Amino acid sequence: MMQKTFAESDVVDFVIVGSGAAGGVLAKELATNGFSVVVLEQGPWRKASDFRHDEYENWLLNAMQPQHPQTFRRNANEQGAVQMTPPPIIYAQGVGGSSVHFTGNFWRFRPVDFKERSLLGPISGTGFADWPITYEELEPYYTKVDWEIGVSGAPGPHDAPRSQPYPLPPMPIKSSGALMEIGAKKLGWNAQVAPVAILSQPYRGRNACVHCGYCMGYGCEMNAKSSTLAAMIPLAVDSGNCEVRTGCTAMRVDMNAAGRATGVVYVNDNGVEHRQAGRAVIVAANGAETPRLLLLSQSSQFPNGLANSSGLVGKYMMWNAHADTFALFEQPLNEYKSIQVTRIIHDFYDSDPRRGFYGGGALDGRLWSGPLLFSLFGLPEDAPRWGPEYKRMLSEYFTHTMQVASASTSLAVESNNITLDPDVKDRFGRPALRTTYHDHPDDLKVVGFLQQRGIELMEAAGAKRVWAPPVMPATIGAHLLGTCRMGNDPRTSVVDRFHRTHDVPNLFLCDGSSFVTSGRGQPTMTIQALAFRAADHITQFARRNEI
Amino acid sequence: MNEHPSRREFVATTSALMSGGWLWLQLPALSALSACAFDAARKDEPFVTFSAAEGRAMRAFAARVLPTDDDNPGAEEAGAAWFADRALAGPLASMLEPVRAGLADLDQRARAAYGVVFAAARTEQQDAIIGEMVESPFFELGRMLVVIGVFSHPDHGGGRGDAGLKVLRVEHAAAYQPPFGWYDAQHGKGGIA
Hints:
The structure holds two protein chains of two kinds. Chain A is an alpha/beta fold. Helices cover 25% and strands 17% of the residues of chain A. In chain A, α6 packs across α12. Chain A is globular and about 70 Å long. Chain B is mostly helical. In chain B, α2 crosses α7, α4 packs across α7 and α5 crosses α7. The termini of chain B are far apart. The N terminus of chain B is likely disordered.
C-alpha cells in the first residue's frame, strides 16, 4: 500500500511511538479524523503471508521479540542480572506489536475493576486505588472495539452491561470447552463463551478463522486474528494522513524551554539518529517501553525523567498472576486444532475478603503448547524424558490433554517497576530495560486458589489424571500494566483521565501503562477501549486548540 | 542437593515457565540458533559441524531418545541429528563443546563396557549408557536438540517427512472444521451423560 510520507521537519499533528494494540487504534482514529500522523515503529512491517507455523522460531527463538538485553531482579536489594532466554518483558515488535502474536482472549473489565478500592478499602503496602473513570464511561468504547476490531462471542451470566451485541457469533466449541461445561455443571459453576478477537465469520474484508491452531505466539496468516496490523493500520494508511515508519527506535522525546514536547528523536536500524517534529506526542510503546522512554528523556528540566513529577513513572507494574492445571482424558480432544480458548469461568471474578486475601480471577480451557513444546515440556514431571515409553506417552497425551489456565489480579506494588539498568546498555547505547518484580503474596494466594478450582473442575469433568505445577513467583511478564497510571491527582498519577501527562500539556501516554488496577487477566481489550476513548478526547482537545 | 543442579533448575524453571503459559529453555545462546536456517537436507548429506564419528553417535543417541517403531518414525527418520549439526554451527559454538564432550563420553563408555562405539552397541546397551548419563548437562542439551530436531520446521534441518506429527499420531492440515475432538462432537449431539 502506498502511504503518505512526511519530511522529518514537517510538524505533523501527532507523532505516535508504537503501532501495537493502542498505537494502531490511535493512528487509525486520529488519521481518519483528519490529523497528520507519523507512527514510529521499531520493528518491521510484516504481511499475513509472512507468518508460518514455526513453533521453534516463534517460541524458542522468540523471533518477533527485540533482541536488546534486559535485566531482572526480584527487589531493589539485588543487582539486576541479564536474562534473555527468556527476557523478563515479553512483547512482539513490528507493526501491530503484541496484538500480532497474542492469543486473542478479549475480556472487558467489569464495573468492580474501576472502583474496587472504594468497595474494599485500602490495602497497606500497595498502591491499590480506584480508576478516575468508570465502566459506564468506557462502555461505548468497549463497544467500539467489538465492532471495529472484530470480536466473536456471546454474553455470559456475569458480564457487565453492554450497549450493543457482539458483532460476530461465537467460535465453535472445542473439546476443552465441552469438558469445562461438563465439570462446571457438576459443580454449579458457569462455563461461558470466551470472547475472542478472532473472526468467526468473514468481516469487513477480512477472512474468517480456519482453525489452524496457531494463534498464541504466532501471527495469523488469514488476518482472522484482529491485530491492529490487520484491522487498524490499513485504515490509518488509507486515510492518506498517516505514515507508519518502521525500523525506527525511539530514543527520547524532545522538549523546548517552554516545557512542551516538540518531537521524537529516533534511530534507524543502523543507529543513525533522526528526529520527527510534531505538535503533540503520544507514547503507546507498551507498559515497559513507555516508561523507559520517559526515563530516557530525562533532562535538566526533568531530572527524574520526563513527566515524572509524581515519581511514579515505571512504578506499580502489574503482570496478572498465572497458574495451570493439566488433565488427561479417555478420548481425544485434539486441542492442537482451532483457537486456544472457547470457554471461560468467571464465577471467581470478585475478591472475597472471607478468603483472607485480596483478589479474583478466571479459568479458561485450552492447551497452549504445540507439538514441539509439548514434547519438550508437556508431559507430567514423572514421565520418562526419553525412550519408547516417552514416545508412547507423547502419542497418548498430546491429543488427550487439556489445560485449565488460571489468571488473576496483581496488586500494584511500588517496588515492582521498570527502571534503567545502571550498567548494561544496548547496541544503540540506551541503558537496558531493568525489571524489578515479585508478586504480592495475595497474587500468589489467589492464583493458587484458582488453580485448586481448576483441579476440581477437571476431576468433575472426569479426567483420568490431573497434574498441576506448583505456583511460583513470576520472572517473566507479557501483560505490561500500571507503570504510568491514570489519576486525577498529579502527585499520585502520571496521566490524567484523558491520558494527558500532568506535567506536559502536549504529551499523552496510552497503553497498558495507563492501568490503575490489573483486571483479571486479559488486558488487551481494555487497552484498546482506552485507546479509542483517548483518541476521541484528544481529537476534541485538538479541534478546540486545547493541546 | 542430590540432583545435578542444572537438572533441578531446569525442571523448576520449566514449571515456573509453564505457569506463565510461556515455556522457555534456560540455556544460554539459544537465541543464536536464529542464524541456522537451511533448506531441508537429504539424509545422506554429510555433517558440517560433527565429525563422522560424532554424527554417528548423535544419530544413535537421537534414535534412543525417540526410537523408530514398526509403524511409526522416530528421530532418525526426522533427521534430528542434522538439525543439531546445523544448530551447533557458527553462532552456537558455545554449546558445541559440551555436546562434543557428551558424544565422546557415549563412545568411551560403550568401548569400556562393550568393546564397540556407541552407535555399534545393541539398543539395550545404548539405553544402559544413557541411563547412567541422565543427570548430566549433555543429556539435557542433547535431548533438547533431538526433540527440536524431530518437531521443528524442515527449514531448520530436521522435521523431515512430518515425522513429528506421525510420532504424535495427529492428522495435520492447514485448516480444520469442527468437530475437532470427541468431547465437542458429543456436545453437538446433545451432551454427555
